[in-house]
Amino acid sequence: MIDSSELCSDAALQKHDLRETGIHQPDAAAPDATAPDAAAPPSAKPPLPRVMVVANQKGGVGKTTTAVNLGAALAVLGYRVLIVDLDPQGNATTGLGINSRNLEATVYDVLLRDIPIEDATEPTSLRNLFIVPSTIHLAGAEIELVPAFSRELRLRRAIEQVTDDYDFVMIDCPPSLGLLTVNGLAAATEVVVPIQCEYYALEGLGQLLRNVNLVQTNLNPALEVTTIVMTMYDARTRLAEQVVREVRRHFGSRVCRHVVPRTVRLSEAPSFGQPIVVFDPNSRGALAYRELAKEVSGGAPQRVR
Ligand SMILES: Nc1ncnc2c1ncn2[C@@H]1O[C@H](COP(=O)(O)OP(=O)(O)OP(=O)(O)O)[C@@H](O)[C@H]1O
Ligand SMILES: [Mg+2]
Questions:
Q1: What is the pTM (predicted TM-score) of this model?
Q2: Is 196 in contact with 2 (CB distance < 8 Å)?
Q3: I want to staple 274 with a disulfide (CB 3.0 to 4.6 A). Which of 26, 145, 157, 279 is the partner?
């Protein structure tokens, strides 16, 4: 069992903080940071179904935007996608137009009342896209889970029952490294890390990676950070380009070739309860997430059902 204090310790943050990585020292000789690296071999993608957890304990970096819009773009490609909202803020839930007042069961019931996940699964306005919603009740789960039997593996056990019904499961984590996020990490085989193209982009990443290692060692040997998504890229600033370059230097081919631009339409879509591919299919944000979906899926054929 993992010691939660270890997962969240400030010492770990200090020790593994990657802030001093030279991110603020532009490297004039480096190639265009945002350009696809043609020399890189096409990386083989894991077989479907893939369970991906979108995690970064830093708040507001684009976790939910990426879970919802990458999930929706994969659904548009014809994949069957389940988004699991593991955040008490419920942003993925409302962002997909689900009214939390009409729900009979949520991810809370799955984690704490052993309700089968299919009983808490809602369709969305997009064909092939489903969500296990969350509400603010989930905030209590962080504490209620502490004495629970097998507390880190609750989500994993629930998702295992339905993995075969989907091509992709995407878990949206809260901005913390508590038990909810540990449940997300324990349930997935791949970690997707959105990184905002801003100053201090790498702050806290070391802590996240250390937690991924802890979960890998203690709970889930299959877990790997496979996908780093650069978000809110503003082409007008040199800083954004420097951040992308620096992250690529650290993480190489795990960084997606396509970056997500900062666009107002992406930030407006959730208030209409729609993913960007529905809200404004021809916008730059929609295009970016569609390209990202192609890249992440690697063009894998949908499974026959
Ligand atoms: N590419 C983008 N362009 C413009 N706005 C964006 C973009 N991506 C995300 N946003 C906006 O930035 C804010 C934070 O994004 P989001 O909610 O996806 O982050 P998060 O990491 O899930 O946050 P939290 O840690 O609170 O869960 C939201 O208001 C969202 O609409
Ligand atoms: Mg979020």
A1: 0.88
A2: no
A3: 279
